[in-house]
Design goal:
110 residues; alpha+beta; two-stranded antiparallel sheet
Length: 110
């Protein structure tokens, strides 16, 4: 299987004649031999490169805490609306479960 790497030196594709400079991204595969800057040419030489999904940017703990705080505030506001409809007949544990489930839904495992 091939891979994408930075060229170690200037070179030219032996099949299509496209040139690249040191440091440019190229497609490379050892066996069967395939090497080109252009994906279509690389595949035409028998190359295969697996595409991977975009890497999700990691958030700082401060960003995660801010997101969670907003979710808690939102859940409390929604709970207050629901509690008014029940005229105080909700148990405190029900409120905790309500808020917790909303926060988990909003924040999840992101």
């Amino acid at each position: 299987m091939g891979r994408i790497l930075n060229a170690k030196f200037d070179s030219t594709c032996k099949k299509c004649g496209l040139t690249w400079s040191e440091g440019e991204k190229i497609y490379y595969q050892k066996d069967p031999k395939a090497l080109c800057k252009e994906l279509k040419c690389f595949i035409g030489q028998g190359g295969f490169v697996e595409t991977k999904p975009e890497v999700v940017q990691k958030r700082t703990i401060e960003e995660r805490m801010a997101e969670t705080t907003k979710a808690i505030q939102f859940a409390i506001e929604k709970y207050e609306v629901v509690a008014l409809k029940f005229d105080g007949k909700l148990e405190p544990k029900d409120g905790i479960v309500f808020i917790e489930s909303i926060v988990k839904t909003l924040v999840g495992s992101r």
